[in-house]
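Service request form, structural biology core

Requester: graduate student, group of Dr. S.
Request type: structure prediction, single chain
Budget code: on file
Notes: please return the result as structure tokens.

Sequence provided:
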Amino acid sequence: MKIITHIQPRQSGKTTTLVSRYLEDLNNSAILTFSQRSKKDIRERFSLTSNRHLYSASDLLNGRLLATRFRSIFIDDYLQFTQEAKKRLNEYIETVHPEVVVSYTSSTESTPLWAYLLIREIREIPGVPLSNMIQKMKKEGSFGLEQLKELSYSLLTHPQSKIILHTEEAPLTNYGIDGIFFEL
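Core staff response, request fulfilled:
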């Protein structure tokens, strides 16, 4: 399974790219949006004739994807998802193991690079409870419990993830460690 997150500036063609990739393999792909409204906007803007494999975070939370397997899942504005939707998405991905999960999003907050790297390292060890993560985070520096919980099941800290930061100056910036790419 490959998990790739593209972090790009607002209004940079993220949704257009996502829909293009989805249409390449319509029968085996799904789009997941953060709201019913964005789901409707995508359907109308790109003249999709139905909601075929087009889901919102609320569809995910209501269990509409549970029995469905896709080869590819494309996620629009992942960082806009609620904490609960991110958690449910992580559980879904771990259950169905799609070949590729690609998200296109804009950065909404600044999280220290060390936090991503640390949580990713901990997630690579199966069965490590959240309490162990909290103790290790306390040693590294102050970091809120809610932020920690969110990072613990985020696609951004998944052991198989790759984060690609696109900037206006350089369309593709690859700086980082072990598949996590940030502009430094």
